[in-house]
Sequence to fold (152 residues):
Amino acid sequence: MTGEFERRHGFPPGANVARPANRDDQAVARTLAQVSLVPADLVTFCDSIGDATWADVGNGYFLDPARDVLLGIQENGVVAVDVDQRAGGPVIGSNGGGLSYVAGSDGTVYRTRTASLDEPELEKVADALRQFLELLERSLARVVADGKPGHL
Fold:
């Protein structure tokens, strides 16, 4: 993916890496497991993957480390994912265009339509974290194949 990047774009590629979780990440993942609105799949993911950055796929895709997910919950609470604002979930990452990804307590992944989390408009992008990760993988594969990531 990065072989032709600098020639094509005029600047060197950024970070494109999935970092394995270290002991600190795993300890925070255990703390996340105690938060009632955090889906179990997210805890499992954070226990294995510290964070993921694909800076050169479209505007970029970023999956936050467990400590940032927990800090977001502690500082800002969860993001309402239903119209009654009874169900909510943590911000788990973002794209490089200012939109955030939110994991509902049932594992559904949403994307904000605007950069604001105060009164976000959300759209469902995946029924589960696994499906969301598969969509990210497809975006990465498209970039490698033809340089176009699609829209996630």
About this structure: The mean pLDDT is 88.
